[in-house]
Each structure stands twice: as structure tokens, then as C-alpha cells.
Amino acid sequence: MIFCDTHCDTVYALTVRPGMPTDVTLERLEKAGVSLQTLALYVGASPKKADIVRLFDRMFKTFLGLTAAGWRQAMDPREAREGEVRVMLSIEGCEILEDSLESIALWRQRGVRMAAITWNYENGLATPAKVDSTTGLKPYGRQAIREMARLGIAPDTSHLNERGFWDILEMGVVPLASHSCCRALCGHQRNLTDEQLKALFRAGGYVGLNFYPWFLSDDGKCTLDTLADHVIHMLDLGGEGYIGFGSDFDGIEEKVPGLDNPLDVPALIETLQRRGVTGDILSGIAGKNLLAYYDRFDPR
Ligand SMILES: [Zn+2]
User: Fold this and answer.
1) With respect to CATH, is domain 4-297 assigned 3.20.20.140?
2) Which of 68, 80, 229, 297 would be 35's cystine partner, CB 3.0–4.6 Å?
């Protein structure tokens, strides 16, 4: 089975807490049979531009260190193969892309294939769900998203507010949400409403389910079955073929019991099977659906 994960903060963790253990390690990815792990370059704890620029430089160096140590970079998600681990870069918070369209091409060259338009700060492109739900994309945000689509960088709507989400779809660009859950099952502002999910699935988008307990249930009390509830809810809304996993490992300080790191993914797969999610639907969720999204988004 090809297994893909569209979000973790391991590069950030290794950069700001060097020497500390991480959830995601190459050994664990190999043991768990992960084919494609997306590694986010995350905007960080300071909204100051100079800090962000410095942090991105440091994180990219960390990433180069990983590839020098044997982590194999995928420049395209469709390089994913069963039994081989590849890692792919993403951006979480487009502050680093807000000054020029040329910067988008630079990061594409470095291998970035998805970019969350915002993290929790308003930036030159858009406004996050954390700030408000009604401010739409900024003019430069529209330009940047067109350029991303042209270059094969998937706009990622996790953290983006609702109006921005609808603006992207109305532009005719089909985004993904790399690490988001269902608002109907957990009321967090950053989760996707049923209307958003239905529209995303109809358009041929993609959602990677986040493993963070506070995005899965209002009281933060979760089991593997809670994740299965979200998967089944998305399937009920037309999500077959359009969903997968966006663990958020190394970015979440609390875990669903029994889902601590990539080694626990087989237990999640077993839970889904027990809940009746099997066959092609399950192998799609595990990884193939992400590759199919890129076939639609960036046909080669
Ligand atoms: Zn995030």
C-alpha cells in the first residue's frame, strides 16, 4: 500500500530544538512503510518578517542536512513508491512568498509542492481563520495563487479563513487542505464545514485528516475511532477518492492515544477496516488519492 502524509513539522522541530527527539524519523517512516512524507517549512512563532526569512533559511539548511543524511527528496508526489520513503517540501504560511512572484519560482525549484496560504497570521496574501472568516484574498494573494497553480504548487487552505477558501475555488483553482478536520464533528474555527468539504470534493480537491485531538473533538477526548468518524463523515459527503492523512506530527503537543508517531499508522488503518472502510477506498485514503489529486492539479 502506498502511504502518504501531507503535513508534519519535523523540519521546524529539528531546527528550533536541535538534538531533541522527533515524532517523525527516517527509521520510523521506513518501518511504518510511509511512501511520501510532506515536510512543512513553517512560518514560526514570530510574525516579524526578518525572523521569518531567517527561520526559512535555517529550516532549508536543516532539510538539506536531512537529504545529505539519506532522506530522499521527491520533487513530485507521483515519485512515491511502495516500500521506499520519500520526503517532499511544503510551506505553511506564505509570508516568504509575499514580496514577489519570483520567490514562488525559487521555492518551487527547491521542491516545494504545496503551500498553506496562511498560518495563523494575516499576511500579504490572505487572512487566516484565526483572525476572521469574512476577509477575502488580497489582490496579490490572487496573483500568487495563480502563479502557484501555474508552477504546480498546490494552494493549501488549512488555516486559511472561509472567505479565502471560497475565493480560491471561485478563481477556478482547486486547492487541497493538507491538515484539516470536519467542523460538523468538532467546532474548531479552522475545521472545514460540510459545505466547504462538499465543494472541495465536487471540484476534485483533497483533504488530509489532522491527528490533533482538539481538531477532532470539542473536548479533546479521542480514540482512533474518532478519526474514523471524521473519515466516514467525509465519505458521506462525497469524499471517496479525495481524502487522506495530514498527521501534524511534531506540530502537536497532544496526541490521540495510540497515535504517537508514524509507527502507529497501521493501527489507524486497522481501525478504518474494522469500521468498514476497506479495499480501494482504504488504499486511496492511505496514499493513492493524493497522487490522483496531483494528476488533476498538475497533469504531466
Ligand atoms: Zn498547521
Assistant:
1) yes
2) 80
Which residue in 108, 109, 25, 5 sits closest to 71, CA to CA?
25
Ligand 1 centre from 174 Cα, in Å?
Answer: 19
Centre of ligand 1 from the C-alpha of residue 92, in Å:
7
CA of 158 to the centre of ligand 1 (A): 7
Tens of pLDDT along the chain (300 residues) come to 999 999 999 999 999 999 999 999 999 999 999 999 999 999 999 999 999 999 999 999 999 999 999 999 999 999 999 999 999 999 999 999 999 999 999 999 999 999 999 999 999 999 999 999 999 999 999 999 999 999 999 999 999 999 999 999 999 999 999 999 999 999 999 999 999 999 999 999 999 999 999 999 999 999 999 999 999 999 999 999 999 999 999 999 999 999 999 999 999 999 999 999 999 999 999 999 999 999 999 997
Cell representation of residue 210? 489532522
Tell me how far the alpha carbon of residue 130 lies from the centroid of ligand 1, in angstroms. 12
Contact 246, 158 (CB under 8 A): yes
d(CA 148, CA 102): 11
Going from the Cα of 94 to the center of ligand 1, the distance in angstroms, rounded, reads 12
Domain ranges for the chain, please list them. Answer: 4-297
159 C-alpha to ligand 1 centroid (Å): 7
